[in-house]
């Protein structure tokens, strides 16, 4: 049956290889079960409900990838997109998380249409390759910055931002902080970054997840020995899982189908949708091409067969994820770990999906993982995204300068959409005014986008 469903022999693989590859993929990306609830909780969403939504979105999306495309790629709510959801759309722009979910839902519907009509590939081809790489790099810096903030390694101070110092430091709500709560967690987060870095260098499978678990275990040891003392008023809680309610799955009811469609036709809301579209589009297609290249799945023309099915799985998963109550669901670059282990078919994805389903029943464990333990994951994932900087052509300044602006704008202005806007505007303006338009053969879509972004700054 498995041979008939997934064409194992045709793809030069077997059941054992595919299952081991699926387990490896899950190990490398399971950190999202701890990180995503933590990030979306900052937007006011129920952390337990977001955990359930995250696991279900990953389960559904990855199963769809197996069914629609028979590829070994796994999906889950994406890093960077969840940060944009929480920190830019909700905390920065002032929208409620219900409206942000609506933007994700609308994005998913648009993606379904674009995936069925091949328009998505056409839009992808219109954006310069260097700018695509810059978006990934900028998001990497933004994610790392958020990780450093969540761990209190970087705090506000007399120089706007500075390295943490216990002297005179108080938690965000004004509660008094001490070495035994915030101080020791800063040290643990730094140790966690070093440990995760070592695991990455030594190419340990599941290095990011192991980094989270080891940092968390060190925190538990500190709590049991009295070095770490929970201080709920300052936002520092106990680190041991609460099994008082058993292994029940947290309810989805606080966030399920809570979209608000009022104001969806405003220009500002359209900008939000476009930002989700833009980031998800290039993250997904870039991941598909990158991972499939590693697995030698591309044809002689450099195209990925059945890419329409893969894109459709991503689009449907995003729509379903919004209904469940989570940010954009996308294809994870960590799928490369399973491909490296020999995964070549949808059986790898199916295995990963089953493991996400089983993880639903371990919510007390994932929800007890503190932000100082997930911070190393954010920093290291930021590094992975930053490596895309090598794909930017710095010898051509008309390409490099817009990329530089795009990259810098995201962490400096604390907004992914600002980086995208300024990258597109500067790319068109610099090439137009320096007389390189004919040489670059800019798409009409780039002109349209730049005009829309300029109008946004004038009227919003």
Describe this structure in words.
- The chain is mostly helical.
- The chain is built from 20 helices and four strands.
- It has helices at residues 2-6, 15-29, 32-41, 47-68, 81-90, 97-117, 119-126, 129-150, 179-201, 207-224, 267-294, 307-324, 335-340, 346-359, 363-367, 371-386, 397-412, 416-433, 437-440, 444-459, and strands at residues 75-77, 154-157, 160-163, 329-331.
- A hairpin with a 2-residue loop joins strand 2 (154-157) and strand 3.
- The termini are far apart.
Radius of gyration, in Å, reads 22 Å
Strand runs, count: 4
Q: Count the helices. How many?
A: 20
Structural class: mainly alpha
Q: Please outline the major beta sheet.
A: 2 strands, antiparallel
Task: Give me some keywords for this one.
460 residues, mainly alpha, two-stranded antiparallel ribbon, two-stranded antiparallel sheet, 20 helices, 3% strand, globular
Brief write-up:
The chain has 460 residues and is mainly alpha-helical. The protein contains 20 helices and 4 strands. The longest helix is centred in the middle third of the chain and has 28 residues, at 267-294.
Topology:
Elements: H1 2-6, H2 15-29, H3 32-41, H4 47-68, E1 75-77, H5 81-90, H6 97-117, H7 119-126, H8 129-150, E2 154-157, E3 160-163, H9 179-201, H10 207-224, H11 267-294, H12 307-324, E4 329-331, H13 335-340, H14 346-359, H15 363-367, H16 371-386, H17 397-412, H18 416-433, H19 437-440, H20 444-459
Antiparallel strand pairs: 1-4, 2-3
Helix pairs in contact: 2-14, 3-4, 3-5, 4-12, 4-14, 6-11, 6-12, 8-16, 8-17, 8-18, 9-10, 9-16, 10-16, 17-18, 18-20
